[in-house]
Amino acid sequence: MDEENEIQDLRLCKKNILTEEEALLVFKRICRQLDHKDNLFLDLNQLKLYCYNGYCNKYLRPKYWKLFLGYFPKNKFKYDHFIKSRRKHYKFYYENAIRQKNIKLLCDRIINNDIDRTILFPFTVKENNVEKIHCKFLDSDNSSLNFSSSHRDSIKRILLTYKITNSSIGYVQGMNMILIPIYYVMINSIDEEDRLYAEEDSFFCFYNLMAEIG
């Protein structure tokens, strides 16, 4: 039975267009592979093929990004412990970054300047008879966040934490434009856990990506 499923999976992951029935089957198989409580083997190459052929949605996209950016442990059955540990580490790194920030004044000035002038999905608001441009995404609130209600603040925190944690590299202008798409995918997931830990998970995905870029 498993061999038949593997053959069927191989056939489906090479198809560009799936029927509704096939799409549901694929979704279930992918979810089983990603589920650390399911004994189905996680086949990275197969998932890459599905992704390459465009099989994705708001639930799977954050999972794909975490997986392909090296945030998932190699052994999926250690996922629960691994992720909890990483998320705790982020809080530790961030608290350390705040301590360093208080010692090294203005160490986040460039980050703040970059993020404050970043505008995505702009809209105009009139304040005291003066029109100001706001960012529909970064300036929006989200009460599900662990740290703050501002997405813009989350981006600043991640970059400050990265800069302090990686002092040899620090912050380079433009890193914000690499981080924002990662964070956007996490915070717009339909999975509540992805949204709740969007900041922590985005930090490590960004960290791994920057390490790969070198």
From TrEMBL:
SUPFAM superfamilies: Ypt/Rab-GAP domain of gyp1p. GO terms for biological process: intracellular protein transport. InterPro entries: Rab-GAP-TBC_dom (IPR000195), Rab-GAP_TBC_sf (IPR035969). GO terms for molecular function: GTPase activator activity. Gene3D superfamilies: putative rabgap domain of human tbc1 domain family member 14 like domains. Residues 55-214 form the Rab-GAP TBC domain. This is Rab-GTPase-TBC domain-containing protein. It comes from Hamiltosporidium tvaerminnensis.
